[in-house]
User: Which sequence fits this backbone?
């Protein structure tokens, strides 16, 4: 027997705690997991050569040339173009 896939079945309600934790996820580890090379510049800052001028530190990123910055969720959504749901799934899956 086949079950129909409804849009509401594809998304998962995320708790405030999960979203808070995802915002604070280690962005450098997420990028390395995706195969990006990071170059340490001191003080916990890293450059990401795939995105010239982008600086990552802990769960935070900033891209001065584009006047953009944010947390780990923002990076995957705004810079990589991922959906919020896909971003949360990626961050919360070990």
Assistant:
């Amino acid at each position: 027997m086949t079950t129909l896939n409804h849009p509401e079945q594809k998304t998962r309600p995320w708790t405030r705690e999960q979203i808070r934790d995802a915002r604070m996820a280690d962005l450098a580890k997420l990028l390395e997991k995706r195969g990006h090379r990071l170059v340490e510049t001191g003080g916990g800052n890293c450059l990401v050569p795939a995105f010239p001028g982008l600086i990552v530190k802990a769960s935070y990123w900033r891209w001065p040339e584009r006047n953009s910055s944010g947390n780990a969720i923002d990076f995957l959504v705004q810079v990589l173009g991922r959906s919020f749901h896909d971003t949360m799934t990626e961050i919360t899956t070990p």
